[in-house]
Amino acid sequence: MRLDADRPLAGLRVVELGNFIAAPTAGRLLADFGAEVIKVERPGTGDELRNWRLYAGDTSMLYRTINRGKLSIELDLRTEEGREVVLDLLRRSDALIENFRPGTLDRWGLDAATLTEANPELVVARVSAFGQTGPMAARPGFAAVAEAFGGMRDLVGEADRPPARVGVSIGDSIAGLYAAFGVLMSLFDREQRRRLGEGPVGPGQRHVDVALHEAVFSMMESLVPDYSAHHVLRERTGGRMEGIAPSNAYVCADGHSVVVAGNADSIFGRCMRAIDREDLASDPGLATNAQRWARRDELDRAIEAWTRTLPRADVLARLDEAGVPAGPIYVASDIVDDPQYVARAMVQPLPVDVDGTVQEVLFPGVVPVLGERSLPLTGAGPDLGAHTHEVLTRILGRECDCAACRTDVPGTSTSTPTSTPEETA
C-alpha cells in the first residue's frame, strides 16, 4: 500500500455504484483523502445528479461537487459483460459503496455471496432508505422521506406553520458520512486482524448497512429520551433551539442578519450589557436558562431592537468585543470573500467546462483539515465515462480500442437505459 502523509487513504481502491447524493458523498470523502474511487455510471445517462440544478451545459455543479476526485466509467450492470467487469474490479479493490434499493444488485447477479467469492475481504457499504432488513427494507425513499421518518422534519420551521425542510439534502449527507465511517472502521478492523495474525471475519461481517432514516434519527439528540423519561414532545421553534435562550437570528439596520447565541449563564449578562440593557443583565428572573426560555420573546425583542439600529459589521464588532458568540448569516457571495475561509483554503478554484467554455469555478475545500489548511482539491466531478479506457487498461489489463471505446468495451453501450424505481434508494 502506498503511503502519503498528505493523503492518508492513498492506496485504497473503492468502487462506487451510487446515484444521487448519499453513497456518492461517502465516495467523495474517501477520494478527498486519497482513495482511488471508481464511479460506475449507466451508459449514456450516468448518475441522475448530473441533471439536478443544471443551469447550463450537460453536467451540474452539484454533480461536480459531490463526485470530485473520482474516476468515471460507463458500464451496464444489467449485462453479463458489465457484471464481469465490475467483479474484476472488486477483486482488485478494498471496498464497494452502493445505494440501490435492497435486492437490486442481487437481481443483477451481484449478491452478497458472489461479492464474497470475488473478494472475501471486500468491505461492502450499502446505503438505502430503510436499511437492508426489517418490514420496510424494500421501500424506496429519498432524503426528504428519511428526514421526516427520522424525526427531523417535524422540528424545522415555525410552530404555526407546516414543517419545513433545511435547504440541502442533509439526510443524504449524514448517511454518506456514516457510510464512509463504516468503510474506514471495517478496513481498520481488517488491518488489525492482519497485524495480530487473526483470520478474516465471517461472511457478512464486513457489510456496512446505513439507512437514511436511521442516520437522521441518530442526529436527533435527546428527542426520544426526553419523550421516554418525561413524556415531552419537542416542537418547532423557528430560528430558536427549544429550551435555549437567547439564541436566534436578528435583523440589522442594513438588512443583513446575524445569529446571536447569548444563552450560557455567564455570557447572558455580557450580551445584555452589550445591547445596553443592564436591567435585563441584573434581573434575577433571568439568571438561569429555564427562566430565560420562559421569557424568550421579551429577550428576542430586546436584542433585535438593538441590532436594527446598527449595520451588521458594527453589531458583530460590539458583540465580539463583549465576548458574545455571534456571526453573520452568510450567502455564497459572503463565503467566497471571507478571510477565514480564505486562510484555511476552504474555497478553491478548479477548471471546469461550463457550457463549452473552461473556466475557474470555486468549490468547497476538504474537511477535516489535516494541518493548517484544506488539502488541495484534485479535480471536479468527471465527465461521464472519462476514465473508462484508463480503468479497463491500467487496472484490469483489458484491451480497449480508444477510437471505439463507446461501442466495443464489454458492458458499455451507446443506448440510454431507462432507470426504474428499483435501481435507486
Automatic annotation (TrEMBL):
Species whose genome carries this gene: Nocardioides flavescens
Source superkingdom: Bacteria
Keyword Transferase: yes
Protein name: CoA transferase
Keywords: Transferase
Gene3D superfamilies, per the entry: Crotonobetainyl-coa:carnitine coa-transferase, domain 1, formyl-coa transferase, domain 3
GO MF terms, alphabetically ordered: CoA-transferase activity
